[in-house]
Design goal:
Elements: H1 12-26, H2 30-39, H3 42-59, H4 64-71, H5 75-87
């Protein structure tokens, strides 16, 4: 999925809603799409959207700083996502929210 730039939208919420809608459309199983949409909180949806967007920006060659500035992600989060992409392994880091 190609991620649209945030600055192309009037608000961050409009961007987020657009990305989430497109993500659900890409899921070919309507019942799964509906379940995801109803089960996840807006906070959880936002985390998923930001991580997909970060992965797309990593693949586009943007720096950690550029990605962090645009998506409001920490360098540790961006670095962890990049490592997952490089190693194709599961993420292994702790959240400061624990």
């Amino acid at each position: 999925m190609k991620v649209s730039r945030i600055d192309k939208f009037k608000s961050r919420k409009e961007w987020s809603d657009n990305i989430w809608r497109r993500l659900l459309e890409d899921i070919k199983h309507p019942a799964l799409s509906a379940s995801l949409d109803s089960l996840l909180s807006s906070y959880e949806k936002n985390i998923i959207i930001n991580r997909f967007a970060a992965v797309a920006l990593i693949k586009d060659g943007q720096t950690y700083r550029e990605i962090g500035r645009e998506l409001w992600l920490s360098p540790n989060t961006v670095r962890s996502l990049k490592r997952v992409l490089e190693n194709r392994s599961a993420k292994n880091y702790r959240s400061y929210r624990l």
